[in-house]
Amino acid sequence: MPPSKRNSTRKTSSTIRRIAINTGGGDAPGLNAVIRAATLSALNQGWEVVGIRDGYHGLMMPANYPDGGLIQLTRERVRGITHMGGTILGTTNRGNPLKFPVMDKRGNVKEVDRSEELIRLIRRNRIDALICVGGDGSLAIANVLAQKGVRVIGVPKTIDNDLDKTVATFGFDTAVSFATECLDRLHSTAEAHQRIMVVEVMGRYAGWIALNSGTAGSADAILIPEIPYDLTRVAAHIKQRANRGRKFSIVVVAEGAKPLGGETSVVEREIGRAERLGGIGERVAQEVEALTGQDSRVVVLGHLLRGGSPTTFDRLLSLRFGAAAVRALVEGQSNVMVALDPPVVRYVPLEQATRRMKTVPLDCDTVLTARELGISFGD
Ligand code: F6P
Q1: Predicted structure pTM score
Q2: Which of 29, 42, 235, 313 is most exposed, with the fewest beta carbons within 10 Å of its own?
Q3: 28 touches ligand 1 (CB under 6 Å)
Q4: 85 in any annotated domain
């Protein structure tokens, strides 16, 4: 029996005529490849395919869109998009239908659950099944919709790689490859000026991007949320290098990294959306400069990590995920997420996939490798 069959959770037998695809949360390279593969696979089944604009906004606020919020996905519409960054459907990390921000008469903002209304809209628009492409937030919404009877397949997207039950999310490889290239470029200027370059990368509360790019890009220190850091240790490591004649250093800092006994650096909190992290790179650069007396500069890679064409790995993974999502529907499955479990793509219950965040295990072999290469984690 193929692995996908063994892992199926709920079998649904009713006929599919029309499916919808949406993309939610921060964009990641590979979204368009998923859309193309899912669309072509579904069209091959004789199904009609529509794309919902901007997460669920196209369904919930159709009047805001000249085309009514739904895009007809035809062969022509998905032609030539595999290599393109972004998403032809648009995306948003605002307006979670489970925690929709509304203002009461007193001007206070509170969160309202609009899932029942969304389900009515899904039915009114004759959508028999939904393919939700997103990260933890989007897949948690997908899970609730599935629990309430909507036929849903999730596709794991995020540059952060923090989704559980899949070896990789699409977008991650592209982000790591770009960050590594940036570290390569920064080495020469750091060495020329004998400086400390502090490079802040995204990743939310997981250190995957920092760990993988920092190790591949020969950083001297990597600071990740999973290992609270002590900058005196980083400074000692940098000074030791200087004593050996290496008068420059590269420090990679995950945006969610925090000092021992300290807090994550948050730039913004807003009702109805995840808190925005940032600022840690600047803090680390200032403190390391003070501790070492060496000139420091900070580079924040930020949204550059989300742009551009997906790498070959991410393109292929996205195409495999998109096709597998439709295969799951053909098999009668619902409430599952497609997941990479090399060499195959499997299906795991959405409920399991969204239960916890996948952070870097402290004993994983990349951490061990980095330590053996002499990279400091500030611990
Ligand atoms: O989850 C993807 C991600 O890029 C995180 O790494 C980052 O913290 C966040 O999204 C940034 O979100 P925004 O696009 O709202 O600035």
Answers
A1: 0.94
A2: 313
A3: no
A4: yes
| pLDDT 10s digits, 39-84 | 999 999 999 999 999 999 999 999 999 999 999 999 999 999 999 9
- Domain match, 156 and 37 both: yes
Give the pair of three-digit tokens for residue 156: 């794991």
Angstrom distance (rounded) from CA 298 to CA 42: 46
State yes or no: is 160 an active-site residue: yes
Which residue, judged by its Cα, is nearest atom 2 of ligand 1? 26
Look up residue 8 and give its two tokens.
């199926």
Q: How many other CB atoms are found less than 10 A from the CB of residue 195?
A: 20
> Residue 368 corresponds to which tokens in the numbers above?
């061990």
The answer to whether the CB of 24 falls within 8 A of the CB of 58 is no
Closest by CA to 31, choosing from 229, 127, 142, 171, is: 171
Clarify whether residues 180 and 282 are in a common domain: yes
| Residues 112 and 253 reside in one and the same domain | no
Q: Which of 174, 264, 256 is nearest to 212 (CA)?
A: 174
Mutate to test the pocket of ligand 1, among 204, 224, 266 (most ligand atoms within 8 A of CB): 204
Is residue 92 in contact with ligand 1, taking CB distance under 6 Å?
no
